[in-house]
Amino acid sequence: MWMPLRYSKVFLCQHCRMLGGVRRLSLLRSQALVAGQWTGADNGATFEVTNPATDQVLGSVPDLGPAETGRAVEAAARYQTTWETTPAKRRSQLLHEYFRVLEAHSEQLAELITAEQGKPLAEARAEVAYGSAYIEWYAGEARRIYGDYVEGAPNKETLLIRQPAGVAALITPWNFPFAMLARKLGAALACGCVAVAKPAEDTPLTALAMAELAQRAGLPDGTLSVITSSRRNAAPVGAALCADPRIAVMSFTGSTAVGKLLYAQCAPTVKKLALELGGNSPFIVFDSADLQKAVAGCMASKFRNAGQTCVSTNRILVQNGIYERFVAALSEAMDRQLTLGNGATDGVNVGPLVNDAQMNKVSGLVSESVRQGAAVVRGGGPHSLGGRFFAPTLLRDVTPDMVCFKEEVFGPVSACARFETEEEALSIANNTDAGLAAYMFTENISQAWRVSKRLQYGMVGVNEGIVSQPEAAFGGVKQSGLGREGSRHSIEDYTDIKYICFGTQ
């Protein structure tokens, strides 16, 4: 998903092809979708969606609350029986058609993602391809939801079958507005669960476009509803979804703090939960590493989406013997490859941070780390472009007690620390409540296997900076969440096992 681009002068396009007018965004919708009907808020309230690079208003969408959310759930519950009894082959066919429609509109989707989220257009295209691949994967998985026959006690035949759990609530984040919804929605629909999706308030337009294309693909009314709400209404809408007993599955991708809140709010109705929460990914470079390969992997993992990914490298741990060379090579690569600017401009590969809150957070973490003793090699603060543009930053001489190591930065900041031994690296890497993704670079195969097993993370990249793919089980351990997305294992989050015992006496 990462394509290195040459570094050139930093710029912000004033007349780029996409900002010539919002009219280019052909999939723009201004209403929410409930059971096949495009609708607004009961009180007519709306909120604006803006481009984080330019502050241009892209459009307005309904600001729904708990009442409208309840009606969306009610409509989904009515349709659940119809969808869960739709033959698996038919569900598979409809998902395959949805995949084809998404592919046919990939460029319009990519332009919409860049406009509302800010990431470079090349990355937005990659996100659409990546997310669509999940729809294609689940189109196949719809016909591979297997049960078991177990030889049990005498005169008893034991069958275990998987059935749809029921209506699924899908709450998605702003950093990958297409891909995060695609991989949840594909799994839910493949298993026979209808979905009520709640996109992030910063990026609702992509989800609405996906709903529009679902209709064009022939997915029946009721299989997908998309409810939009402002930041003010986000918590009440989330609470309404958690409290509603008609919701059987809650799938959420976002911060650990919000995930814990939803976890608690789902307890009274004992829902199935799939939570993909925050990370604090270590990136370990051993003396035995191929330096060029390690730098390329770090660039791919760290600067994709301006560092705003849950599996982004957050703590770079470099063994003493290669530390100085690695820092110098990483600094050179950042200087040569990274171009900051409006994501719609050709050649740009680092866009703005998504909103002012994110800008303030990243700025504060870097400032505090420097105060604690980290040295700035390059960058170090907001860029002269102003707005939400943060200069790609490299910090060295970082120690594990610094705030940039203890918290997830979620920005274009590389923080490098030294270590002496393998045991020390493992101790630092595992010293966190997060356990989503980890990376290591070594040419020693024994070390690669040994360290991979001891890293307390759900995913480990060995000599690889991009690990996510539809065929793999994406998810974490510890406080990084529950469940898995992708692979055959994601089916478990949207199905229940039913045990049927036949007496044959």
Task: Describe how the helices and strands are arranged.
Elements: E1 32-34, E2 37-39, E3 46-50, E4 57-62, H1 66-84, H2 88-104, H3 106-117, H4 121-141, E5 148-151, E6 156-164, E7 167-171, H5 179-191, E8 195-198, H6 204-216, E9 224-226, H7 231-243, E10 247-253, H8 256-266, E11 272-276, E12 281-285, H9 291-303, E13 313-319, H10 320-337, H11 356-371, E14 375-378, E15 393-396, H12 403-406, E16 413-419, H13 422-430, E17 437-441, H14 445-454, E18 459-462, E19 481-482, E20 495-503
Parallel strand pairs: 7-8, 7-10, 8-9, 10-11, 12-13, 12-17, 13-16, 15-16, 17-18
Antiparallel strand pairs: 1-2, 3-4, 5-6, 6-20, 11-19, 14-15
SSE-based structural type = alpha/beta
Strand content: 15-25%
Basic shape? globular
Runs in which pLDDT lies below 50 for 5 or more consecutive residues are 1-23
* Rounded Rg: 23 Å
- The percent range for helix content is 25-40%
Read across the widest sheet, the strand sequence of neighbours is: 14-15-16-13-12-17-18
Mean pLDDT: 94
- What is the terminal separation in angstroms? 59 Å
How would you explain this protein's 3D organization?
- This protein has helices at residues 66-84, 88-104, 106-117, 121-141, 179-191, 204-216, 231-243, 256-266, 291-303, 320-337, 356-371, 403-406, 422-430, 445-454; strands spanning 32-34, 37-39, 46-50, 57-62, 148-151, 156-164, 167-171, 195-198, 224-226, 247-253, 272-276, 281-285, 313-319, 375-378, 393-396, 413-419, 437-441, 459-462, 481-482, 495-503.
- Strand 17, helix 14 and strand 18 (459-462) form a beta-alpha-beta unit.
- It is α/β, with parallel strands linked by helices and 505 residues long.
- A 7-stranded mixed beta sheet has the order 14-15-16-13-12-17-18, with helices on both faces.
